[in-house]
Amino acid sequence: MCYRRSSEDETNPLRHTSRFSLVLALLLAAGAARAAGPQAAAAEKISPPLATWLEDVAPIMTKAERAVFSSLKTNADRTKFVRFFWRSRDPLPDTEENEFQKEYEARVRYADETFGRTSPKRGSQTDRGFFYVLLGKPRERTSYETQSQLWPLELWFYQGDEEYGLPGYFYLIFYRPEGIGDFRLYSPTVDGPEKLTIPALGNGVALTRRSALAAIKAINGELARASQSYMPGESPGGMSSLSSDSIIAAVRNLPEKKYSDSYARSYMAFKDYIETDYSDRYIASAFDLRVFREAGQPFLHWSIEPDKMNFSAQGEAIYASYELVLRLEDGRGRTVFERTEEIPLRLDAAQYKAHERQRFAFQDLLAVAPGDYRGLFLLKNKTTRDFTSFEARVEVPAAPAGEAALTTPLLYYARGAVPEGQKRNLKAFVFGGRQYVVGARREFPPASSLGIFVQARGVAGPAAGAAPSFIVEIFSLDRNETAASVPLAEAVPDPGDAAVLLVSGEVPLKDVKPGYYRADVSMTAPDGRKLLTKGENFIVLAQPLNVVPWPYARLHGPFPGLEHLRVLGSQYFLKGEYARARDALQRALEVRDDADTRLLLAKALYGLGLYGESLTQAAAVHERTRDREAAKVMALDQAGLKDWSAALATLETLMAEATEVPVLNLAAECHMALGRPDKALPLIQRSLTLLPDQPAVRALEDEARKRIGQR
After folding, report:
1. pLDDT the model gives residue 284
2. Tens of pLDDT along 512-531?
3. Residues with Cβ < 8 Å from 435, sequence gap 6 or more?
4. Contact 164/137 with Cβ under 8 angstroms?
5. DSSP 195
6. What angle do CA 14, 18, 23 make, to 5 degrees?
7. Exposed, middle or buried by CB within 10 Å (0-12, 13-18, 19+), for 446?
8. pTM, full prediction
């Protein structure tokens, strides 16, 4: 006899399991401890050397880096982060010495020695120290500490880096308010020249900004101008200039513009996957994630382009062995998909020579269930021990019947027909029998052509009487104007999905100036109204560079097929959508009988409360493979059917092979159901010895003791 849940129960996965079979069921649903997410642990107190390091690097740390470092729980993870931090700033990563780190640490030492003499704080933690370690030694530094009309102060003169939003040259003034305490940064806007001058005692004349400025000018004209504005040559006419505040803000914001913190943004995701000898070998990369449909099913297409590819040579062969880790997490941080795959690359000398100046792109696709995800990608070069990683939000919309929709435009360099024998196969960025050549950076040389592709769903085909048309508008983000508008004349039905149009076209860039642009694709009604618009940014370069990557992508079987259906079944199962998991897995088994697929189907049926059907599937797998996971599902089903003796027989076999806390708990529950608390108690005690923090098991222990005492 099996129990079938009502439809409303599907919103409450595993509702009909008892308290300890639930523990085991969750273990099965996770598939692995990591899939269920790590348990929260108390943070280890930061070590004194790491606390000092955090103080030292505060001026050059980005907000993202600080947030990630603050969230780390162990000193081991913090130490690993430090290595990433310095590596990301190394100007010559191929040399043994990190020149930036050496220079920066020298600045900190100088600041401590020079600016800490009259301060209770370390010199690098004072205002002067902050700006010194951030900007380096000023071009000029003038001290005014013996003037009878001025409080002690220093005038610093810098040459700024305009690339990061600083003026070509600027001043900074540090002064000791009323001659006491630390030197602090002066603000021409907030403080004004009167804060720099000493009031004359007993003359009865109030100090004004004008008189203070006159007193400073009498000592040094350059200092007087700097007291009004940090921008050389600016004449605020007696008033303090707001440009000084802008300069101070730009300096303080310098780390956000100057230093790449892409490694930090995904550090929490990849830190457990990277061995120690990788930890300071992060390589930046560009990436692109897109969702397109094939035969109605959403597929995630991606391209990863490392800034640098490292190979080793063996004889005539040039090779590298890569490992790709892909993980999708839902909004609650639960893993719904994880895969690790090996990517061996082997080139001959001619291939390497032909592509050595071309970026390499790792491209692939994956069937994805509708939902919102956090996508985590880690690409490790196991040959040269370096890696790149990124994370991104992935939105996979469902496809409501009848609703019109456009995908975000895919910008391409070229396209070509795939071989006839591969037209049924799936491959990244192949649509309608054409391979589209794309780049994650979306950079296009001058005088080239910009290719544009979209999928349009739920619209009439071009042969229909009131069919919509499609246009692309090239909008300049620099000049805030439309640079070109071109119709997309090619709109053909997707051979695999009659509800989808494949829309494409090319825009010549010969008359488009270098700069930043957005390509807006619009679907328009016959009367010219724009019905839908989707856009994508791109760059037109000033110089003709080779920007087309050399892609590595593998072929997949057609959809629907065992590979894709099993991936979808697993995703639905981990999302708790057991009915959809069952449907996908049953379709997969129609393609080919596979023990792993059948076992996953048994778990989905268990989640639906169909214990009898689940038991049939799990028993078939166990009979064929003697798989331990299949035996666990059998025990759960037998307990769900309240066949406690059968469940105990299965669990006894499992316990004879290995000790697992959930198995002990379920066996104890079976004994309690059979009225044998004396048999349950030793199992409960063993479980608590292995894992003390189990409140529900403690409660069961009390219940078992109570029943034994009542005999």
Report:
1. 83
2. 999 999 999 999 988 888 98
3. 415, 416, 417, 418, 427, 429
4. no
5. G
6. 70
7. middle
8. 0.74
